[in-house]
Amino acid sequence: MIHEGEPIVPEEFAAASDCEKWDREIAHRNVLFGLWAGSRLGLSGDDLETYAWSVHFADGEEPGHDDVIAKVSGDLAAHGIVIKERLLRQQLREMQLRAFFDLANASTRAPAMRGRAAAPRCNA
Q1: Judging by beta carbons within 10 Å of its beta carbon (0-12, 13-18, 19+), is residue 72 exposed, middle or buried?
Q2: Distance, CA of 72 to CA of 118 (rounded, Å)
Q3: Among 69, 62, 56, CA closest to 99
Q4: pLDDT per residue as tens digits for the range 88-121
Q5: Residue 33 maps to a domain
Q6: CATH no. for residue 96?
Q7: How many domains does the chain have?
Q8: In which domain, by residue range, is 69 found?
C-alpha cells in the first residue's frame, strides 16, 4: 500500500535521467493528490490506493494537468463536495513540491530548487 509522502521508486531515482526523474515526480505528485482527494471522499485502505492511482492514470488524457484537476473536481462534486478549482490547483502545486522533496531525499542527494520552474524537455 502507498502511504502519503512515501517515494514511489526511491532506489532508482538517483540514477535516472532528468526526463525519467520528471516523470516519476509527476507520477508521485498525482498519487499524492489522489490520496488527498480520496481521503476527502471518505476512502481508505485499498479503495484509497486504487483511487489515487486512477487520478494518476487520468493524467494521460490531455497535455498538462487539467485532466487531473477535472477528474478530482468531478469526483468531489459527484459526492457533494465543492472545492474551487483555484484551491485544487494550489493543492496540486503543494503535492508537486512534496513529490520533489520526497524523491530528492530518497536519492541521497537533495538538489536545490534552482531551475525547477519548468519541466525538462522530454520526448513523449
Answers
A1: buried
A2: 24
A3: 56
A4: 999 999 999 999 999 888 764 444 444 444 455 5
A5: yes
A6: 1.10.790.20
A7: 1
A8: 22-106
What are the phi and psi torsion angles at 106 (to 5°)?
-70, -20
Place of cell 485499498: 46
Question: How many residues are present in the chain?
Answer: 124
Q: Helices 85-106 and 66-78 sit at what angle, rounded to 10 degrees?
A: 120
- Flag whether 113 is in a domain: no
Does the residue 2 lie in any domain?
A: no
- Which of 88, 90, 89, 61 lies closest to 76, judged by CA? 88
Half-sphere exposure of 88 (CA within 13 A, CB side): 23
pTM, to two decimals:
0.73
Return d(Cα 56, Cα 38) in angstroms, integer. Answer: 12
Q: Does residue 12 lie within any of the structural domains?
A: no
